[in-house]
Amino acid sequence: MGEWDRREDESVNQWSRRLIGDEWIDRPSTRPKVIMEYFGQESAKSQIQPFLKRVEGFPNTLILGRPGIGKTRLARWIASQRKEEFEEFLCPINPDSLPSLGIIMLDEAHKQKHPEWLWTIMESEYVSVLAATTRPEQLEPSFKSRFMLTVTLKRYSIGSMTEMGLSILDMNPDSAMLYASASAGNPRQLELILAVAKELGAENHEEVLSACRITADGLTEYHIEVLTALRKAGRPIGLSSLAGLLYSDEQTVKDAEPLLIEMDLVSLRSNGRALARNGEQYLSRLEQTD
Fold this sequence. Notes:
Blueprint: H1 12-15, E1 18-20, E2 23-24, H2 42-52, E3 61-64, H3 71-82, E4 86-90, E5 102-107, H4 119-122, E6 127-133, H5 141-144, E7 149-152, H6 158-168, H7 173-182, H8 187-200, H9 205-212, H10 221-233, H11 239-245, H12 250-262, E8 266-269, E9 272-275, H13 277-289
Parallel strand pairs: 3-6, 3-7, 4-5, 5-6
Antiparallel strand pairs: 1-2, 1-4, 8-9
């Protein structure tokens, strides 16, 4: 089987999902079958709203944001609103395998080899290309220039996450708000929590979060490992040094850092990042509860 034959493989559902009108085929059980509502991201929605009802095709759009923030969810919602056929692909992709009609989602677009092969389909009046990436700096300038819109998704508010949670799982508002807080504004993290809550009972808050290995304020095991590594270092260290201590890669560290900095657990300095006083206190509290 060749590099580009993913749609013929047994794992086809991992690589391609289709929307006909408003109805999704092969949708994960925690997501609604019809995407008529998209919670939060008001700035992004206001940016794309003028193009949802126009007769011409939806403009080629670059969607930026952290992992799990809902880039693919936004693409699906756009296709649902326009009632167009939709297919999702994971880059790198062979252009010959792309459909000639509807809305196409290219995930991890920074991994696309020879993006110039996409120019023809990106210029087609019958196809709209939506490309998602967490690493826009790795896109070639000529590739970036072919997107009419660039939409950046931000971390969701607790209110939006609470609404989303209530739409996914039947539970009381207090539980929905608690799980929204534990999701740290990340829909993917919320879906994990709610999938476990569905099995263990939505009201068993402590048990659910313990099973997910997520704290009530949204820190994952990896976040705790970052804090512990910085404590072990005992001084400000660079990104590569921190990644080495974690046996991780620099991008994974960069993806985890914003929440830790926002919570004032990690401080960025001219000579690197360091564990903040609040971070030391946070680790101490965790140790006391173990």
